[in-house]
Amino acid sequence: MDTGPDPDIDLVERSRHGDASALRELLHANARLIRSVAARLTRNPQLQEDIFQEVVMRVIRKISEFRGNCKFSTWLYRITVNVTFSMLSREGVHRNTLELEEVAEHSLSGEQSIEDAIDQKRMFKKALSVIMGMRENNREVFSMFYLADASLDEIAKQTGKSQNAIKAILFKGRKLITKHLRRNGMLSNV
Amino acid sequence: MKCRVSQRQVYLLCDGLLPGDERAALEAHIAKCDRCACLLREARLSLAVLRSARTEPALLDEASADAAIARAFEAAGRQPRMLEFPRVRKQRWLAAAATVLLFAAAFSTYVGLHRANRGGSRSAGVESEPQGSTICTLARDTTVIFNRMCGLRICANSRVTLNQPSPRVVHFDLADGGVRIAAHKGLYDTISVRCGAVSVMATGTHFAVDRGGDEIRVAVAEGTVVVRNAQSGSRSAVACGELCVANGESGTMSTGPLPQSLRSQLAEGFETLGPWDFPLGLSRGQWPQTRSAHAQEDGSAAQRTFAAIRRTIRRAEYDSAIVALVNYLARYSVDKDVAWCDLALCYSKTSRWESALDAYKHTMSATSDTLVREAVLHRSNSILFSKLGRYAEAEKGIRDYLAAYPIGSWREREYGMLVKIELAGKRRDDATRTIEAYQSEFPAACSVEEMRTEIAKLSRDSDVKGDAGRGR
Fold first, then answer.
1. Is the Cβ pair A174, B11 closer than 8 Å?
2. Choice between A70 and B117, residue whose per-residue pLDDT is larger
3. Which of A40, A50, A65 sits opposite B53 (nearest CB)?
4. How far B391 CA sits from the closest chain A CA (Å)?
5. d(Cα B242, Cα B245) in Å, to the nearest integer?
6. Is residue B59 one of the residues assigned to a domain?
7. Domain match, B458 and B401 both
8. Nearest residue on chain A to B54, judged by CA atoms?
9. How far is CA B419 from CA B386, B397, B425, B450, in A?
10. CA–CA separation, B424 and B412 (whole Å)
11. CA Rg value for chain A
12. Are B28 and B134 in a shared domain?
């Protein structure tokens, strides 16, 4: 993630002070970010739309509480990740169905074989269920780093945790995922 | 030489989080150490799995995203404090005071509505107009269930207009027309509406259900409600400002923005709740008075006591509530069925299943309300089946339920329990018959396949045992 100055700073300031048009512009400018993070975690179009709607509602409600100590995009990542996981736990990961046709289409366009693409999807689904089982604070940090591409520095600013604490959370999560993948015979080719 | 590199360092290296000098040293080490090289391969593979989702294209297009933003702003516009009054630290105490006042107002509204219904002041409760929300339905063959226990079933071709701001519902079974129901907002209990093949569940929210032919329209004016289409088994969360159209015949569901006409109609119904029209010529004073006669006996003292008990239950102090309810039942003769029902609930919450069962038996003998009897029978069966494991009694109860309530709200679950009991008793033929009945009643139920698999498994097991016996 880019660690330069926040490009949205002006819009954020105006939004925080109740400027609805600025907030609207801000949301339009960052809509792609919400859509892409939601798309990484669920392949259900209805759920993606629900997530998008809920994130936007939450931003409208909470923008006055945004402290500005990190980039707006990081804050948005955090909200999106939390909303997505809460919806996934409510709806069940099973709604993230493995679309074989989609996998086939995807692999035909890329270099991956269909088998590899399916394997990878299965492994990702397993990893996602492990992430969902993590404690909420750890899940948030882990997902922001690996699934929403937030940098260590940004996560530290947003969550108030030290970089070492974040590294420890990331390591524990990775170890847990590797353990589960190994137990399910998904790392047999290593 | 023994390798002293920790797994953590390898993972940090893989994630690019190791400082430059440490990284170079570790890379040099890994080139010589098989264990660390294997760890790194594993770490890279799991990282690739996590990063694999990066390439997933968004399924939500830009136009839909823009529409969602517009909808959210419209919804926010109905709650102006979101944008117009950004929170200021100094005024936090004001916000806290306002919150306390709001809660107090909501609570007094609830208690007021409850009292109005329970005592002789029932008509006063009706006249004072509910300050809360509304559920409207203009549908036929609809069931509205309040407070999980009490409900109203509207028969086909009936037309009723109610303005009963209480979960205790008067039953109507009248000919000709549709129905409109006014009820207070459920503060902590779920309100569910079943309309043909579609059911809606919501807590503390405003929504309207309307039916035309096979199409059921659910309009949401506050919060989010879940709409379930029993025909296709699909569920959809309908957000504030949206309209969900579910087809009970084809099983399809679609959600879109709420049309302006419906929006204003909803707002009108929820905010003003003005005088309703009474197409059957029933004026408010002529509404059936099911409870007023006995409620006048020792009304006020019982009301006060009961309100205090309900507060105790709401605070989840079930043990105190049990003592208070037992005293109430010994002392007052008003609304004994409700008290027994609450007692059963408290016993269930504290896992005293035998006592809960006993309290439900008393509820059955104290009430003539069909919907309450149906709910109590279902609950008793569930306790017997899942908590006490008394399958023979549970089976009898389930069969009673299925025979007595041909369009009951819990038939699906009752069938599920019955099949499990029959499978547990290895009664394959009975289970097959039950599944057939279940499938003919709920053709889209997805659990049928699971049940059939269980039966097939049972058959295989018995075949294997038979073969083994013959072999011997």
1. yes
2. A70
3. A40
4. 31
5. 10
6. no
7. yes
8. A40
9. 13, 14, 10, 11
10. 19
11. 18
12. no
Q: What chain B residue is nearest to A112 in terms of C-alpha separation?
A: B52
Q: How far is CA B316 from CA B319, B321, B329, B340, B345, in A?
A: 9, 9, 20, 17, 11
Q: Tell if the CB–CB gap between A146 and B51 is shorter than 8 Å.
A: yes
Nearest CA in chain A to B237: A50
Of A28, A60, A61, the CB nearest to B66: A28
SS3 content of chain B, % helix, strand, coil (to 5): 55, 15, 30
pLDDT digits (tens, 9 = 90+) for B418-470: 888 888 888 888 888 888 888 777 765 656 666 777 777 766 666 555 555 44
Model confidence at B397: pLDDT above 90: yes
How wide is the angle at C-alpha B79 spanned by C-alphas B73 and B82, nearest 5°? 75
Query: Would the CB atoms of A61 and B76 count as touching at under 8 Å?
Result: yes
Number of domains in chain A: 1
pLDDT of residue B381: 92
Question: What is the distance between the alpha carbons of residues B5 and B30, in angstroms, rounded to a whole number?
Answer: 9
Contact A32 B8 (CB under 8 A): no
Q: Distance from A123 to chain B by nearest Cα, in Å?
A: 6
Q: What is the pTM of this model?
A: 0.41
- State which residues of chain A have pLDDT below 50: 1-2, 93-110, 190
Does a structural domain hold residue B292?
no
Q: What is the token pair recorded at B16?
A: 């690019």
Which residues does B346 contact at the CB level (< 8 Å), separation at least 6? B313, B318, B321, B322, B325
Q: C-alpha A117: how far from its chain's center?
A: 21
* B152 and B261 co-located in one domain: yes
| Contact (Cβ atoms closer than 8 angstroms) between residue B415 and residue B431 | no
Domain count, chain B: 4
Q: Which of B43, B49, B240 lies closest to A123 in CB terms?
A: B49
CB within 8 Å of B400: residues ≥ 6 apart? B377
**Torsions phi, psi of B87, nearest 5?**
-70, 130
Q: Quick check: is A2 in a domain?
A: no
pLDDT at B158 over 60: no
B277 and B367 in a single domain? The answer is no
Give the separation between CA B451 and CA B432, rounded to whole angstroms: 9
- What is the ipTM, given to two decimal places? 0.78
The size of the A-B interface in CB pairs under 8 A is 133
Pairwise CA distance, residues B252 & B233, whole Å: 10
Boundary (domain end) residue, out of B250, B281, B312:
B281
| Contact residues on chain B for A171, CB-CB shorter than 8 A | 7-8, 11-12
Do B217 and B338 reside in the same domain of the chain? no
Query: Is the distance from CB of B132 to CB of B113 less than 8 angstroms?
Result: yes
Is the distance from CB of B219 to CB of B200 less than 8 angstroms? no
pLDDT at B63 over 50: yes
* Six-digit token string for B93: 């105490």
